[in-house]
Design goal:
alpha+beta, Beta-lactamase, six-stranded mixed sheet, 21 helices, 36% helix, 17% strand
């Protein structure tokens, strides 16, 4: 059967073509409309946004770190300044492809011939938190040879630049390391608490001392500049600039000549010296020996150098003036005497018989006087002059721990006394409550006795001893010790002043002061040798702080003890006694004798402050007055 032949329907085909053309035309029109709408949206509606993005590729805002404030001593000698230094910085976003900056570090190490430790340190610095496009310093104090090598290999180091920066410098070296402190690189922990805006572009912050306490004043306010860059990030021109506000300059109360005299008087021994002006609370000298060079920490100390300082048995990094805790020994006796007089427990004429020891009623234990032969009948004046332990055992027993602790707190024992020294330790003035809370034990009567001579649980810093002595010199008026004399011409303000010590009988101050004068000028004074030839009268008190305990009945034998187990030597004094202008506190570690070792140090420091080149009292110290020598 023949197959049917289908005839082509031209009308249907034409209709199909027309429909496809219409659909295609509509699709084209829709696509054109969508394109026009998109162009309108991008170029009209989002014009500001995209123009800003474009500008950000071309214009960058760069922070301008402020110049750190300078620090001077009281005579205008520069203690901390800023010196120019060439540093190698790297901007991670401009170091080629994302994630390629480690390879750039490898090139830097190769070009400069550095060690793997340097490479690890560079990477650590690059990983620290920072703002986008902020250059990170990775190497400081470049030499001319290193700068030349970087310049020759610049094509291999995208995002790397050599820039000139101001770096902190301490021209006096170790002299003020423990008081002024030093700056160092900002670490991750500090970065979380800092004002990221004000510290943008700043890579150093005060770590210790004045540098840390007055960080907000010394740092200043950051500035900015808008710069135009090319595709490689090179700055073409500056479009706008806002200058930074430099940090405030600080003038310290410290005197470099007195500081050097105090260091010389200490003679290289381990110890601490602090000198105050009792009239103002200004710290005139603050020595902690051994010391260290703070310049080592500014741009990053090496692992080896830091390990030597950290592991040294002499602890040069330890601030003995503020953090060294020592039993005050007999240096606390004048304050205990004031407490006894004011509380009515004793009078100046009250006498105690000293057979060389003291015993509590119904107890066999003997609390020894340093003079094992005893001083016989002693009153307050003789007790201070001879540093009689038996008298103060009896006085402490009569007062009791509660009153004794309260009075010592008023003298600053067991609390921070400084105005601008954040590193200061509060020390310890024990009490019933303290022992119950820390030791879970009751307070024993014998513990009160040994507190009366500055032993036992009591712990003080050399600064606290100086302040307690200044209160006696000042007749109870509190002037908190401070290092800053002026900040941009303004004196620091004590926003939390301490309460003055007001006695029921003001003459009690003079009674205790007279006893302290007899220590230096009396015929039986324990430190009379240190006052020989002095053109002014000194009121002082020696002290010896035990390092290791001695069993009942045994004698102190220095030959049986290691050098570092021997007693510490302490001495506190003020002068001139009739109108005090300087208070000095000295602690010589393992010096053994307060009157024999520490007292001469005090005398040298006082002479350096009060006397002129001819050995006479300076004009500001008043007319020369010669101390009366006791009759033999």
């Amino acid at each position: 059967m023949p197959q049917q032949i289908r005839l082509k329907d031209h009308e249907k085909d034409a209709r199909l073509v027309r429909n496809r053309v219409v659909v295609g035309a509509i699709a084209v029109v829709l696509l054109v409309c969508a394109l026009i709408a998109r162009l309108y949206y991008l170029q009209v509606i989002q014009y500001d946004y995209h123009s800003t993005l474009s500008e950000n590729n071309r214009v960058h805002v760069q922070p301008i770190p402020p110049t750190r404030g300078l620090i001077f001593d009281r005579n205008g000698v520069v203690v901390a300044d800023n010196r120019p230094s060439f540093s190698l910085v790297m901007t991670r976003e401009r170091a080629g492809n994302p994630g390629s900056w480690p390879q750039v570090l490898d090139v830097i190490v190769e070009v400069l011939g550095l060690t793997p430790d340097d490479r690890a340190l560079f990477e650590k610095r690059m990983k620290q938190g920072r703002r986008p496009f902020e250059p990170v310093p990775i190497l400081f104090e470049l030499t001319e040879e290193q700068i030349a090598r970087i310049a020759v290999n610049q094509f291999r180091l995208p995002g790397v630049e050599v820039v000139a920066q101001l770096v902190r410098h301490y021209p006096q070296g170790a002299h003020f390391a423990h008081s002024v402190g030093y700056v160092g690189r900002i670490n991750e922990k500090e970065l979380k608490t800092l004002d990221t805006v004000n510290y943008s572009g700043t890579h150093h912050i005060g770590k210790t001392g004045i540098e840390r306490f007055y960080e907000d004043d010394l740092h200043g306010q950051v500035g900015y500049e808008e710069v135009e860059t090319n595709a490689r990030g090179r700055v073409l021109r500056v479009l706008k600039r806002t200058d930074p506000k430099p940090g405030k300059d600080i003038v310290l109360s410290l005197d470099i000549k007195l500081q050097e005299a105090a260091e010389q008087a200490l003679g290289g021994r381990r110890g601490a010296i602090v000198a105050l002006d009792p009239r103002t609370g200004e710290v005139l000298a603050m020595v902690s020996q051994p010391s260290f060079d703070p310049n080592l920490f500014v741009t990053g100390i090496s692992f080896k150098a830091y390990a030597e300082l950290r592991d040294s048995i002499d602890r040069p990094l330890f601030n003995r003036v503020l953090r060294g805790l020592y039993p005050p020994g007999s240096t606390i006796k004048p304050a205990v005497a004031i407490a006894g007089l004011d509380s009515g427990v004793v009078t100046a004429s009250t006498r105690v018989f000293d057979p060389g020891y003291y015993q509590l009623p119904n107890y066999d234990h003997k609390y020894r006087n340093w003079n094992r032969y005893g001083d016989g009948w002693v009153d307050l004046d003789v007790a201070i002059m001879r540093s009689n332990d038996t008298y103060f055992y009896d006085l402490a027993h009569k007062m009791g721990i509660d009153r004794l602790s309260t009075y010592m707190n008023r003298f600053g024992v067991g609390q921070k006394v400084a105005l601008d020294m954040f590193e200061e330790s509060p020390g310890l003035m024990p009490s019933r409550e303290w022992k119950r809370a820390t030791r879970r034990q009751a307070w024993f009567p014998g513990e009160t006795l040994i507190l009366g001579i500055g032993q036992g649980y009591m712990q003080t810093t050399p600064l606290q001893l100086a302040q307690a002595t200044a209160l006696i010199a000042n007749k109870g008026v509190w002037n908190r010790p401070h290092l800053a004399k002026t900040i941009e011409g303004q004196a620091p303000v004590d926003e939390n002043p301490m309460e003055n010590i007001v006695l029921r009988d003001k003459s009690d101050w003079a009674k205790v002061t007279h006893g302290m004068e007899q220590v230096m000028h009396g015929a039986r004074g324990t430190a009379r040798k240190a006052a020989i030839g002095s053109p002014y009268r000194i009121a002082g008190k020696s002290g010896t702080a035990q390092v290791v305990a001695i069993k009942q009945g045994e004698k102190y034998d220095r030959n049986k003890l290691q050098e570092r187990h021997r007693d510490h030597a302490l001495f506190v004094a003020f002068a001139p006694a009739e109108a005090p202008k300087i208070v000095v506190s000295v602690m010589v570690e393992n010096g053994e004798s307060g009157s024999g070792v520490a007292a001469p140090v005090v005398r040298q420091v006082m002479d350096a402050w009060l006397l002129d080149e001819n050995g006479r009292l300076k004009s500001e110290s008043g007319p020369a007055t010669v101390a009366e020598e006791p009759a033999p």
